[in-house]
Amino acid sequence: MDLHVSLRSLSTSWNSVAILLAFSIYLAFALTFLPGKVVPGVILSDGTRLPYPCNGLISLLLLVALLGIGVQTKFVSPTLVSDRGLELLAVTFIFGFLISLVLYAAGCKSKDQGSSLKPHVTGNVIHDWWFGIQLNPRFIGIDLKFFFVRAGMMGWLIINLSILAKTIEDANLGRSMILYQVFCALYIIDYFFYEEYMTSTWDIIAERLGFMLVFGDLVWIPFTFSIQACALYLLNDLHLLCTFFFFLLNKTLDHHNSK
């Protein structure tokens, strides 16, 4: 019995891996091929400027549309994400941890002297792994910083919508949940509408990519910012004022995280 339960749990975890992998592949495809304004980044110390395809809004809308079609055709369950919340959190954390190790190893081996890829090694392994070694590492032409923060913001919306679907499924939808969902959706849409301004933020232009930023983008943003939705689902009788409190708390965390 214990072996059966363990194998079933392992199988479910691999399903979460598949979800994360499919999400990542879609984001890479969308970032590379969907139309959008290509914005030159700030001038780096060596005089170069990195290009950033700012097609986040169309990528987000297409993703939501595809998921909507999947739900309508019963190919995807609307509660797929919320039903596997803790599993996805664990898988994403492990993925972020492994990515940070790869970034550390690649940075240590890099001989590039350009501003975006020049290795900054202090000799302190924990420090270099945590804060990163390279400023703007890329993979198959994709800026990983830009990719990860986009994944976090879109992941936040997908988690919220899945919790909303769970709430509707349980006939537990209240005004607080509706208000929260509207606020967050507007905030995320606004973020991607003005995505080009992200190219000049401190994270992009100054901080090297290590575990701190990877964890912040992939885990902190989607899984902590959606705690409010979880609370409203579990405690549907919360007063509307609590929704405003949750939203303000979320914006405070977001402001602190962006510094």
Shape: globular
Contiguous runs where pLDDT drops below 50 for at least 5 residues: none
Characterize the biggest β-sheet: 2 strands, antiparallel
Report the span from N to C terminus. Answer: 50 Å
The share of residues in extended strands comes to under 5%
Number of strands: 4
Q: Estimate percent helicity.
A: 55-70%
Along the chain, the helix and strand elements come as HEEHHHHEEHHHHHH
Q: Name the average pLDDT.
A: 86
Report strand order across the widest sheet: 1-2
Number of helices: 11
Given helix and strand content, the structural type is mainly alpha
| Cα-based radius of gyration, to the nearest Å | 19 Å
Please explain how this structure is put together:
- 68% of the residues lie in helices and 5% in strands.
- It is built from 11 helices and 4 strands.
- It has helices spanning 2-33, 56-72, 80-83, 85-109, 125-131, 144-169, 175-193, 202-205, 211-225, 227-234, 240-258, and strands spanning 37-40, 51-54, 138-139, 142-143.
- A two-stranded antiparallel ribbon has the order 1-2. A two-stranded antiparallel ribbon has the order 3-4.
- A hairpin with a 2-residue loop joins strand 3 and strand 4 (142-143).
- Helix 4 packs antiparallel against helix 9 (211-225) and helix 7 runs antiparallel to helix 10 (227-234).
- It is globular, with a radius of gyration of 19 Å.
